[in-house]
Design brief:
heterotrimer, A alpha/beta (416), B alpha+beta (95), C alpha+beta (982), B: 95 residues, alpha+beta, Folate-binding fold, four-stranded antiparallel sheet, two-stranded antiparallel ribbon, 35% strand, C: 982 residues, Ubiquitin-like (UB roll), FAD/NAD(P)-binding domain, 28% strand, elongated
Chain lengths: 416, 95, 982
């Protein structure tokens, strides 16, 4: 069923009785060409691009809960491609370009809104690093713009320019950055993949791998055994648990990241703004809530909830740059599991086990990567070659010494 | 969270800095024939369990002890806390 | 219209009238009113507009669950959007305005959305607004954003202050209704340290709203007596106006105490206090929240929760209507009718959906058993209802009850999952509760006042025994259990028009059915697709009905359908309160260098360096800009002598008989054989082989070293050293103390440095090059006996020393040094000149040691020992960290000396395209060198060490700059180090 304003109008006239389910609710089959474990954003986008771009339609997506129940359903919705390193920037720029055409491509309004992202800087050293990054972005074909304090005073007069502990000296804009209605991304991909014949099987948890002579033949699930030629793991928040069933240890620690939303407010923020002297990023949703977050709590956790010190730290950082939000109220806080990798960059790779593939380690930057992650994973699954923009995101890079460490924090996941 | 420091009693976790898996105590022997492989695993691979986890916390806003905290990563329940130095010695660190 | 709906009695103070205004209209209420009760007293029914359809809305509840009556409170910078009128305490001079309408509240232009409702069903926006593509950001979204949102922020800085505090107790009781009061009374008498907190400004909970009798008196009087007794007990802290908003790990709770929200002005006092409460045990006595029944047009002003009607009548002595109808599926609804009658209010009808029930005698009230309401009328206020049989009843207030839901929110904050209790048709606490928490009373699904009191007392005694407090069963007050029978009835299925489930977000029964029809069948999908329960009330009155209707669609039971999770906070918390005092200049503490006062008095401009404030340069009156000052500081230092406060560098005192061995593990270069009285440069790596920090370490004695680190890494290096000491080499005899703040340290640099210092240091120290050569160190005294340390090290490349004195002498030492240097025209220099001189010397600093570079990249390979083990050794040998085309740190200068260099620029080989594939490296640091008279830079470029003399393009497309530069040695000044050794 194709969605359009005209269709909404027609259905409105006839009591909205004609809307069909957005996706089927199939039972798992015993065999697929490819199984994708994980019906989150990346898994669904992988299924979508596999079926749409690579023509692989005999695909089953196995989701242990409801589709989109992982981090695609609990993030702060930011999209951007303001990375610095050659291992990352072309990938994220590819992702941003996919975002730009996504709604028309999958016929679903995910409210992709390129209202800009601004990273504030507060010192000369930080400016130098941002200039380097801006130039990397432009070299990779992305957009970047450096703004000085005077320009920011004109554009964002509500920032605390005159009384802040760490003066706002300027910022790095990416005008094409912005936000997306996150749940709609999962739904749009699910609906698109389903329409191409992909089986999306909810409430189906993988309980083990069927591995024979070093090759993975299928999986055991709570709804029976399912075989496939290729098994693609894509389970942010459960990467270590799932891969442990295949006997693998990963360069990943799982941490809790809290996120926050305020009560609805009439528009106050034009785009995304991030603080450079503390952990705080904020945007305003179309519904009016200030959506914001900060750093991970910092300890290993699968609890999907955090603690007060970080809540208060985030609020302090928010007040440090925009003290006008003091009387806005925090409505809801929540937590997600972030699979933090050892250099802050992800993996899209084969494993040493035949037929078993792994996508994960997105730290807390997975949402913006959703289209490219799916596209590149689909490319790898279909061709057995890494996609050119994801060619550095390999599992063996630490053994080789090929680090993709944007922050320069080394092998301590909670610092990335 | 509250961490029961073996010397100082219950302290707010905000006084501490977290490092990660207590396996970081087990720095390999650099002279072993497979030292490169061992250091790679030591430096990069983690069990990352959902459940009981032994982990290193540093009492930076306190007595500067490194502690090994045995904590459940699903419930955050702390089972027990040891001085990391005692753990390291018990593991037989040679120097 | 002066308090037209006020009746006698109640818990308001008629001796304290209070004037307030709503939308500019003056009104009057009394102390003890909420804004909602005062508005109702004045007959104000229409108070707001709904989120999506902009439907007229009135007051729906009498508590924190309010979905409709959101107002903007106060004016100017103190304007406070989305305030629930039902919990806002009335004060004299209160100004409130309605929100979320274009035009007036009465005539909202956006209410046109209500007419378009057939096209605006659940999730309609996901299906349209996609064409043409460019219209989303330019047209559709701005329109949607302008129409969405609720209240307005002032866009001005929050004028209030907020405090934070910490409380510790044995026993935290959350909620001061019947359960909470009994728990407090029982525990207080045991001697335990007790905190009793309630969000209301008056303790008692429903006891204040009901016409119960306890021990022969009115329940509100009994509550007041209990509070009076508790007030006399020193071990009980009573906290009214305090919301426990979150349950965190290990018995920690977040609490918000409202200090001045009930006053016209904060008058300089903190508006609110954010408490962190550490409890050994807690008891949740949060009571229950009433839920409505959905039927066509059930959202009109005048339709409210039955329990709220009782609150207004009994507690606030306000009648929400002159002709009230009650609609119920439970016995509790009957009490609404009887309470109204007792207060002399006309009750038009009691409509009970159940067949075969027997309400008590309600004289003069028409009782309709098995009745259903199909529709209502009245645009801006309810005027009539229509029954199933088509009969119309004119009424201006409809009290609706669909039963009560235990307020389980805090039990879910650690992901405890409530379980369905079929007996009371509601979710009760379940799964793993927060550590130390138990639940009592209505929050635990116990119904009936007598049962609540009895069971809470028992639970409390168990808790006290668990805590080893002696407690005896108190004599319990005498009361009765009220009738509580309820039936599962969630919505009137026969309703044809929109029947609201989530009032604020305008989610109707049809929306829930449409969501199901489209495949959004998990509760979480329903919530996200329809926005059910996502409004400022977080679904407190709507979630269960929504679930029940979803269950109905899928022919499942409610427990099979599941529930969404409650997350903190229980009610919204101002961001300002969460931030507390840490804002503006107080966001982070300041660290001041020992010579800060001297610097301030001598024209310093300061710069933030982490939390430090360092002198950046010292301007003189005749200088036109910072460059003039910096150039002078560099030139005069190189010509004669300059002095710089370098205290911020980390200093770690390392002692013990194994100290040398320890350092040997830490640094890449050898330290075992460093002689006493000598200093050595040291480089340290992370265990992953990447360069981490550098500095100098002096050996003051056989077993005594003093390490310096970079300013940025002072804390981190110390932490890492403690890790190495306690975890990796736990048997070494070595001890560490951070002495960064203990010693003031000054660099004295320039050809006259020795001459200057000779005037300061005490005999017998001989500063001659022979007895105190480059890289010597000593403990000595200065100024006739002040202890000091002297290191002959040089960051500037000049003949230079660093002298350290105990920090308390730092400011004087600066003064002494400057006076002693007067004859040499000594200058103080700041971080900018320091930076220029280090770039001239080619020293790596923070921009180069950025956590991504190796010793090889930095040209420091010579400091990496191949003979010994050290942190980072093995992993630094990985193949791809040692590729032939690895980047190397080199110097750059513009081919045209007048061109300026820019840090952050990239390098492209001449003749190649400016693309990422051709990226050769980047410029990390630049400075104008007054010594050389042109711009110089340090940067990383592939195989740089082999490319000296090559011209490359420095490209900076972000600034639109491209400059041809030459690769040169990074050592621009005195490359052979003759001066520092002189």
């Amino acid at each position: 069923m194709r969605y359009s304003g005209f269709k909404v109008f027609l259905e409105g006239l006839t009591g909205n009785r004609g809307w069909k389910t957005a996706w089927r609710d199939p039972k798992p089959r015993s065999d697929y060409d490819i199984i994708i474990i994980g019906g989150g954003g990346h898994g669904l986008s992988t299924a979508y691009y596999l079926s749409k771009v690579y023509g692989v339609r005999n695909v089953g997506v196995l989701e242990k809960a409801w589709l989109g129940s992982g981090n695609i359903g609990r993030n702060t919705t930011i999209i951007r491609s303001n990375y610095m390193l050659p291992g990352n920037e072309p990938f994220y720029e590819f992702s941003l370009k996919l975002w730009e055409g996504l709604e028309q491509d999958f016929n679903y309004n995910a409210m992709i809104s390129q209202r800009s992202i601004l990273n504030l800087f507060h010192s000369d050293q930080q400016r130098d690093a941002f200039v380097r990054r801006a130039n990397s972005m432009i070299l990779a074909g992305a957009d970047a713009e450096l703004a000085d304090e005077a320009q920011l005073r004109r554009e964002l007069p509500f920032l605390d320019f005159d009384n802040s502990r760490f003066p706002i000296k300027g910022g790095l804009y990416q005008r094409r950055g912005g936000t997306v209605r996150h749940d709609a991304v999962a739904w749009g991909y699910a609906r698109g993949a389903d329409s191409h014949g992909v089986d999306i099987i909810q409430n189906c948890e993988v309980t083990g791998f069927h591995i024979e002579n070093g090759a993975c033949k299928g999986v055991h699930t709570t709804r029976g055994d399912v075989n496939a030629k290729k098994i693609a793991v894509c389970v942010a928040g459960s990467s270590s648990r799932v891969m442990a069933m295949a006997g693998m240890r990963l360069p990943i620690e799982s941490h809790v990241l809290q996120a926050f939303v305020s009560e609805g407010l009439k528009p106050v923020l034009p785009g995304v703004i991030t603080f450079g002297a503390g952990h705080f990023y904020v945007s305003q949703s179309d519904k009016g809530g200030l959506v914001f977050g900060g750093d991970i709590d910092g300890y290993n956790s699968y609890a999907q909830r955090g603690n007060l010190p970080v809540v208060e730290d985030v609020a302090e950082s928010g007040m440090a740059i925009m003290p006008m939000i003091g009387r806005a109220r925090l409505l809801r806080s929540w937590g997600g599991i972030m699979d933090m990798s050892m250099d802050g960059s992800p993996f899209i790779d084969k494993t040493h086990i035949g037929g078993l593939y792994f996508n994960g380690g997105w730290c807390y930057g997975g949402f913006k990567a959703t289209p490219a992650s799916g596209y590149c994973y689909a490319h790898l699954l279909a061709t057995d070659e890494p996609h050119p923009v994801a060619k550095e995101m390999l599992l063996n890079r630490f053994e080789r010494g090929h680090l993709i460490d944007e922050k320069g924090q080394g092998n301590q996941p909670n610092l990335h | 969270m509250i961490i029961k420091h073996p010397l100082l009693g219950p302290r707010d976790a905000a006084e501490f800095v977290y490092l990660g898996d207590a396996s970081m105590i087990d720095r390999p022997n650099p002279n072993a024939p497979d030292a490169k492989e061992q250091f790679y695993e030591y430096g990069y691979l983690r069990d990352n369990p959902a459940g009981e986890h032994k982990e290193l916390w540093y009492h930076e806003q306190g007595d500067r002890s490194w502690l090994v905290v045995t904590r459940n990563t699903i419930t955050h329940e702390v089972k027990y806390v040891q001085l990391a130095r005692d753990v390291a010695r018990a593991k037989g660190r040679d120097r | 219209m002066s308090q037209s709906h006020r009746i006698s009695g109640g818990l308001i103070d008629r001796t304290k009238p209070m004037h307030f205004s709503f939308n500019g209209k003056g009104m009057e209420g009394y102390a003890g009113d909420t804004l909602a009760s005062a508005l109702l007293a004045n007959g104000q029914k229409l108070v707001g507009r709904s989120f999506k359809y902009h439907r007229p809305r009135g007051i729906f509840s009498a508590g924190p669950e309010e979905p409709n009556a959101l107002v903007q409170l106060r004016t100017g910078a103190a304007q406070e959007p989305n305030t629930r009128a039902t919990v806002a305490e009335l004060f004299d001079g209160l100004i409130a305005t309605s929100q979320n309408h274009r035009g007036s509240l009465e005539f909202d232009l956006l209410s046109i959305a209500d007419l378009a409702a057939p096209f605006l069903g659940a999730g309609f926006y996901y299906k349209t607004f996609m064409w043409p593509k460019a219209f989303w950001e330019k047209l559709y979204e701005p329109m949607i954003r302008a129409a969405a949102g609720l209240g307005n922020l002032s866009m001005k800085e929050d004028p209030d202050t907020y405090d934070k505090g910490f409380l510790h107790c044995d026993f935290l009781i959350i909620g001061a209704g019947p359960s909470g009061l009994i728990a407090a009374l029982t525990s207080a008498r045991s001697g335990a340290q007790v905190i009793l907190a309630d969000e209301d400004f008056r303790f008692g909970g429903r006891l204040n709203s009901e016409s119960f009798v306890i021990d022969g008196s009115a329940s509100s009087d009994w509550a007041a007596q209990v509070v009076a007794e508790l007030t006399t007990l020193p071990n009980v802290r009573l906290m009214t106006r305090t919301t426990i908003y979150g349950a965190y790990d290990h018995g920690v709770f977040g609490a918000l105490e409202r200090m001045t929200d009930h006053l016209k002005s904060s008058a300089g006092k903190p508006r609110q206090i954010l408490w962190r409460i550490y409890s050994k045990r807690s008891l949740l006595c949060a009571g229950a929240t009433e839920r409505p029944i959905a039927f066509s047009n059930n959202d009109r002003p005048g339709i409210m929760l039955a329990g709220a009607v009782r609150s207004y009548v009994n507690r606030f002595s306000v009648v929400p209507g002159k002709n009230v109808t009650v609609f119920t599926n439970n016995d509790d609804g009957w009490r609404t009718a009887s309470d109204l009658i007792a207060q002399g209010v006309n009750v038009r009808a009691l409509i009970d959906v159940r067949e075969g029930v027997n309400p008590p005698d309600l004289t003069g009230v028409e009782v309709i058993i098995g009745g259903l309401i199909l529709d209502t009328a009245g645009r801006k206020a309810l005027s009539s209802i229509t029954l199933k049989n088509g009969r119309k009843i004119s009424t201006d207030c409809l009290a609706v009850t669909g039963g009560w839901n235990p307020t389980v929110h805090l039990t879910c904050h650690q992901r405890g999952k409530p379980v369905w209790n079929e007996d009371i048709l509601a979710f009760v606490p379940g799964g793993t509760l927060p550590a130390g928490m138990r639940v009592a009373g209505a929050a635990n699904g116990v119904l009936g006042l007598s049962s609540i009191i009895k069971s809470t007392a028992e639970t409390t005694i168990e808790i006290l025994q668990d805590l080893s407090f002696k407690s005896k069963a108190a004599v319990l007050p005498v009361t009765e259990d009220e009738a509580q029978s309820c039936t599962a009835f969630w919505h009137v299925k026969e309703s044809k028009k929109r029947a609201w489930v989530d009032l604020q977000n305008d989610v109707t029964v049809k929306d829930i059915k449409l969501s199901y029809q489209e495949g959004f069948r998990s509760v979480e999908h329903l919530k996200r697709y329809s926005t059910l329960g996502m409004a400022t009330d977080q679904g407190k009155t709507s979630n269960i009905a929504g679930l029940a209707i979803l269950a109905e669609c899928s022919a499942k039971t409610i427990p099979e359908t599941g529930t969404t999770i409650f997350r903190p906070p229980y009610t919204p918390v101002p961001i300002g309160a969460l931030a507390g005092r840490a804002r503006g200049k107080d966001f982070k503490p300041y660290r001041l260098t020992p010579s800060h006062l001297w610097a301030e008095a001598n024209g310093a401009t300061f710069v933030e360096t982490g939390n430090w404030m360092r002198a950046q340069w010292f301007a003189r009156a005749e200088e036109k800009g910072w460059r003039d000052s910096v150039d002078r500081e560099v030139t005069m230092t190189r010509a004669s002598v300059g002095i710089c406060d370098v205290t911020t560098l980390g200093k770690i005192d390392i002692q013990g008989k194994d100290a040398a061995e320890f350092l040997n593990y830490i640094y890449t270069n050898a330290f075992l054989k460093l002689s006493v009285g000598k200093v050595r440069y040291g480089l340290m790596l992370r265990e992953d082989g990447i360069a981490y920090d550098d500095g100098t370490t002096a050996r003051l004695g056989e077993n005594h070293f003093v390490m310096t680190t970079t300013t940025a890494n002072a804390v981190l290096v110390f932490r890492k050293l403690e890790f190495a000491r306690q975890c990796l080499w736990p048997n070494l005899d070595v001890h560490l103390i951070s002495t960064t703040d203990g010693w003031a340290q000054f660099a004295v640099a320039g050809p006259n440095a020795r001459n200057l210092l000779s005037k300061v240091v005490d005999a017998p120290l001989d500063l001659s090059n022979e007895s105190f050569p480059f890289m010597a160190c000593a403990e000595l005294s200065v100024c006739g006996g002040t202890p000091a340390r002297l290191f002959r090290i040089s960051f500037s490349g000049e003949l230079a020393y660093e002298i350290a004195v105990p920090a308390r002498y730092g400011n004087s030492m600066m003064d002494v040094l400057m006076k002693a240097g007067a004859e040499f025209d000594a200058v103080p220099y700041g971080t900018e000149a320091l930076g220029v001189m280090r770039i001239e010397k080619g020293h790596a600093a923070g921009n180069e040691l950025n956590g991504q570079t190796t010793a090889l990249n930095l040209g420091l390979g010579g400091f990496v020992s191949s003979k010994k083990d050290f942190i980072g050794k093995t992993l630094s040998q990985r193949a791809e960290l040692n590729l032939p085309d690895a980047i190397r740190l080199v110097g750059f200068k513009a081919v045209n000396p007048s061109d300026a260099l820019l840090a952050g620029s990239h390098f492209i080989t001449k003749g190649e395209q400016t693309t990422m594939e051709n990226d050769q490296g980047w410029m990390s640091s630049v400075a104008y060198s007054p010594t050389l008279g042109h711009s110089i830079g340090l940067g990383f470029i592939k195989r740089g060490h082999e490319r000296l003399g090559e011209m490359v393009q420095m490209v900076n497309p972000a600034y639109g700059i491209e400059v041809e530069v030459e690769i040169v040695s990074p050592h621009f000044y005195d490359p052979d180090g003759v001066l520092q050794r002189g």
